[in-house]
Amino acid sequence: MIDAKIYSEGYAVILALGEDYIKRLPSDVFEFIKSKSESSYMPKIENKPINEQGLSEETMAMLAMLRLNYWCDSAQEKSEFLQYLETNEEKLKEILMKTASTRELLRLIRTNKL
Questions:
Q1: What does each of the 114 residues of the chain score in pLDDT, given as a tens digit?
Q2: Which of 2, 28, 87, 98 has its CA 20 to 30 A from that of 41?
Q3: What interhelical angle do 57-66 and 4-17 show, nearest 10?
Q4: Is residue 2 situated within a structural domain?
Q5: How many domains, in total, are found in the chain?
Q6: What is the largest CA-CA distance in the chain?
Q7: Overall pTM surpassing 0.85 (yes/no)
Q8: How far apart are CA 14 and CA 47, in angstroms?
Q9: Is residue 111 part of a domain?
């Protein structure tokens, strides 16, 4: 089961992205995310890169899914984003094969070196 914190972070990011992004989501998807978020936890999203916001990996995965399914403007953009995701997955596999250090993997993810 997905933690309400993940939905809260996702909801905060969607609100920060603005009306254009909200309108591109099916209303039931937006309302579902909103309803599952915690009213007591609303992270502050700042005007800086998404990977510097301190969001959970699960939130980042949810946002990637939303981008892929609803926010890509063209088939080419969708294809390029899928390629980006696949490249990152391959990098993760290589790192896991080279090292058993989960801390190193998480550090690389958090510092956007993947």
A1: 578 999 999 999 999 999 999 999 999 999 999 999 998 888 899 999 988 999 998 999 999 999 999 999 999 999 999 998 888 887 767 765 665 556 666 677 777 766
A2: 28
A3: 50
A4: yes
A5: 1
A6: 44
A7: no
A8: 13
A9: no
